[in-house]
Amino acid sequence: MSTKKKILFVIHRLEVGGAEKSFVSLLNALPLEQFDVYVKAQKPNGMFRKYVPECADVSELPNDYICMAERITGRNFWRHVTLRTLLLKVMCIICCTLRGKDSKRRMNREQYYNEFWKKHFRDVPGHYDVVVSYMDCVNHYVIDHVDADRKILWCHNDYNKLDYVADYDRPYYGKAYRICTISEICRQSLVENFPEYKDKFEVVENISSSRMIESQAEMLDEINAADDGFLEDSRFKIVSLGRLTEQKGFDYAVDAAKIMKERGLSFCWYILGIGYSENDLKNQARRNDVTDVIKFVGVRANPYPYIKRADLFVIPSRFEGKSIALDEAKILCKPIVATKYPSVSDALEDGKNGVLVNMDARSIADGIQALYGDEAKRNALREYLKNDNCSNEEEVVNKFMSLV
């Protein structure tokens, strides 16, 4: 009989994303010989599945949870649907659409879905010593439907920037052993909303492993096969990385590209990622006549060769918890321009290891142009980063081990 601790990680998917990347990096850094490791996901077979250690037992969450979480038009919904879950889904959509102001004050859409479905969910089978809900969206499910001695939740963003209603989450946070978040600003946001639980909040940063990142930056198979013109492009190359959503601010990037093109700069801005804003952003690029200088190249399982071979890395976000992409660019000693989102000061000091700009297209264009025309400044940023230990692997592993 195994004397190892049984630890279950629950995550919504193993597809592209900063939190997902942080999750597989954490798994690979942990002393897994001390645990029996289980991973359950809504979508377990995404891009990052191949990076999950072989010793981990990976499986899907129960069908009813998947049907709740997936869009009714999605292929994954119809792969798992039954007559019962189809009826529940339709009823939930109708009730959520028709609910009144009082209901909306008490819970947002995601919280309402949980409230509607929770009495219909099946529990995850078995008992665990520790369960870790690695994403905000599965926190409710883990509290209600997993049997474990210790439950650890995660909040991967500034709670004040999310659409959650704190009063709904309060009893769930009360049942957790710890609630982890990824920066001190994010912890302060949680304390502000849940002062009674301030002793439960722990900062466990997204893991950034210099060993893994530097190694993968030299793996060129994917970038060679991509045929996106990046390696052959002789212009000043800008790279950004992230989901194509409003939070990431790529609409600012498209407008900034127009300003820089009008100023006569010779550049191309490569944006790696997918998301619900993709069509809107491409249409915006066409309207701005910048499709020749800004390219949406889609997802890359290994973005590090792009970052390493870029002249500049840009983060135009409206808000972040703690940007994994920023830490990765620092590890690869890349000059960085970032907007002044609330938590950016945790990672960048203006003029020392990056350049901070106001959150608008003209300021972003000005910040990029200042470095475009100043190779000495770019070199100074690189030299500073070379002497700055940006890897936090050991620290994060120690913190996590103390929790479990």
What would you note in describing this structure?
With 404 residues, this protein is of the alpha/beta class. It has two domains: 5-208 and 394-403, Rossmann fold, CATH 3.40.50.2000; 210-386, Glycogen Phosphorylase B (Rossmann fold, 3-Layer(aba) Sandwich). Helices cover 41% and strands 18% of the residues. The protein has 18 helices and 13 strands. The strands form two sheets. The protein has a seven-stranded parallel sheet with strand order 3-2-1-4-5-6-7. The radius of gyration is 22 Å and the shape is globular. The two termini are 20 Å apart. The model has no long low-confidence stretch (mean pLDDT 91).
Features:
2 domains, 404 residues, 18% strand, alpha/beta, Rossmann fold, globular, seven-stranded parallel β-sheet, single chain, six-stranded parallel β-sheet, 18 helices
